[in-house]
């Protein structure tokens, strides 16, 4: 799949089944995604991969934080066969400002989602206040100034699901050819 097709056809997929990429395939795709723009080549991120029963520890931390049932939280953490947590690990002593480090993480994540799509996998990015909940921070072993930015649910789009398409928006009002007066 060429880059233009990947960008125009990638969608957040709500329903994901197996298979998901293996840890080796995820690493291969992540290596390519890490070629995204990154001032200072700091790689201010890390991924934590959860599959199978390892997702239950996250479900327990979520239930501890929000008081909902463990079963309800298991249903959340098992929406896809692979749950990847993105951790932002900024370098506080780098001359590269934190906002640029965050931009690098965003570029890498976008590239990864496009690469997953090009390989036939679906994904959806989920966020929420619980990313910063103390039980979740403790489980993920986050040190200051690290923070979890989101969960990337990864798998294969369930067969027979209708393909959702959207038209590329008109961006004419977002573009101006600059000319000094």
Describe the structure.
Strands 1, 2, 3, 4 and 5 form a 5-stranded antiparallel β-sheet that branches. This protein has a single domain, classed as NADH Oxidase (3-Layer(aba) Sandwich), CATH 3.40.109.10. The radius of gyration is 18 Å and the shape is globular. It is 36% helix and 18% strand. The protein has 181 residues and is an alpha+beta fold. α3 crosses α4 and α3 packs antiparallel against α6. The protein has 6 helices and 5 strands; from the N terminus they run αβαβααβαβαβ.
Low-confidence stretches: none
CATH class designation:
Alpha Beta
Q: From the alpha-carbon coordinates, what is the Rg to the nearest angstrom?
A: 18 Å
Order of helices and strands: HEHEHHEHEHE
Spatial gap, N to C terminus: 44 Å
The coarse overall form would be globular
Relevant CATH superfamily: NADH Oxidase
Given the helix and strand composition, which structural class is it?
Answer: alpha+beta
Mean pLDDT across residues: 95
Quickly count the helices: 6
Report the sheet with the most strands, covering strand number, pairing sense and barrel closure.
5 strands, antiparallel
CATH architecture: 3-Layer(aba) Sandwich
Total strands: 5
What is the count of structural domains? 1
And the CATH topology?
NADH Oxidase
| β-sheet strand percentage | 15-25%
The share of residues in helices is 25-40%
């Amino acid at each position: 799949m060429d880059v233009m097709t990947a960008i125009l056809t990638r969608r957040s997929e709500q329903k994901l089944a197996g298979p998901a990429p293996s840890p080796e395939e995820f690493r291969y795709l992540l290596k390519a995604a890490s070629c995204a723009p990154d001032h200072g080549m700091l790689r201010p991120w890390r991924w934590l991969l959860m599959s199978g029963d390892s997702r239950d520890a996250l479900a327990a931390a979520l239930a501890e934080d929000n008081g909902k049932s463990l079963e309800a939280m298991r249903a959340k953490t098992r929406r896809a066969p692979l749950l990847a947590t993105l951790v932002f690990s900024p370098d506080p002593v780098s001359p590269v400002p934190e906002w640029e480090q965050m931009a690098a993480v965003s570029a890498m994540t976008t590239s990864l989602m496009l690469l997953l799509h090009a390989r036939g996998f679906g994904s959806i990015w989920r966020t929420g206040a619980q990313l910063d909940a103390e039980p979740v921070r403790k489980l993920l072993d986050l040190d200051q100034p690290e923070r979890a930015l989101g969960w990337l649910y990864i798998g294969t789009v369930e067969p027979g699901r209708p393909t959702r398409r959207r038209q590329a928006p008109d961006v004419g009002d977002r573009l101006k050819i600059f000319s000094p007066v």
